[in-house]
Amino acid sequence: MPTDPVLVVHGGAWAMPDDMVEAHLRGVNNALAAGWRVLERGGSSLDAVEEAVVIMEDDETFDAGRGSFLNRDGKVQLDALIMDGATLRAGGVGCVERLCNPVRAARKILSESPHVYFVGEGAEKFAAEHGVPLCSNEDLIIPREVERLRAYQAAQAELKRSGSKPDGNDLFAGDSDDTTISHDTVGAVALDRDGNIAAATSTGGTLNKAPGRLGDSSLIGCGCYADNLSAAASTTGWGEPIMKLVLAKWTADRISAGNLPEWSAQEAMNYLKQRVNGHGGIIVLNPEGHIGIAHNTPRMAWAYRTVKKQESGVVREN
Ligand code: ASP
Questions:
Q1: Closest Cα to atom 1 of ligand 1
Q2: How remote is the CA of residue 123 from the centroid of ligand 1, in Å?
Q3: Atom number in ligand 1 closest to CA 213
Q4: CB contact set of 44 (below 8 Å; sequence gap of 6+)
Q5: Model pTM?
Q6: How does pLDDT run across 152-211, given as a tens digit for each residue?
Q7: Residue 185 designated active-site
């Protein structure tokens, strides 16, 4: 008997201001619709998460694809991962500068390469050779982000001049508690009619990051994970703490040990806060179709759909 499909997406966890709620909700719902079209016609969970993430990479609201945060040098550097729970095959790209849709390249790596992960120019070359179009870095940069970086760097310089300690990389250090810094990474987890689960995550990383810095999002088990024997998960938030806990895999392991995704997602957020003072959000889904959505930030954009129900929001009460 075919399984009832399920799709969950997120668009970042942080103290999102009121005037940005509508754009985030529209974005996650558009992504949900695209992924659901795939599942509804019997397509795979892998195709569904890819299509959902592409929609959010193309939406400038999010820190993924065009409109992403700029690094310290004023460039966009993107990371993405996609993983198939049926086979454990995965494809990841890191620090790519010329791909509008890094998840498309990640998918090609999963399907057409014996390798799992490509970075920088090698990733771009692989993508181009496999029919994923390249763009220029300027195509990914929008005026909002140029201004955001300028204001941030000016504030840092001012702090330095006045003798206060600038945020600098401390922004991501173990003691940072600032949820007002936007975290608009995107992700999706899906269950298809064949009972297979998959996950994908895509990001521009963090504002003013050092060139070459890679976050959690595209690392297997950190920002993304999928295994039919446990769960599919996608995380967002402050990447360094999430990486240290290998949080997506940690959560999947809790689920394979018999805990419900709903509880495991919440537990992951408590663990993140308590163990490394991290903040963020997570979506999880097991092959039985149970979902978990949790965040320890004031808000996280999320949406899910099952055959019976569809919901979205920016706060998830568990
Ligand atoms: N986790 C991402 C990173 O650290 C950022 C985010 O989720 O917004 O690169």
A1: 239
A2: 20
A3: 9
A4: 38, 192, 194, 196, 198
A5: 0.95
A6: 999 999 988 888 766 544 333 334 456 567 778 999 999 999 999 999 999 999 999 999
A7: yes
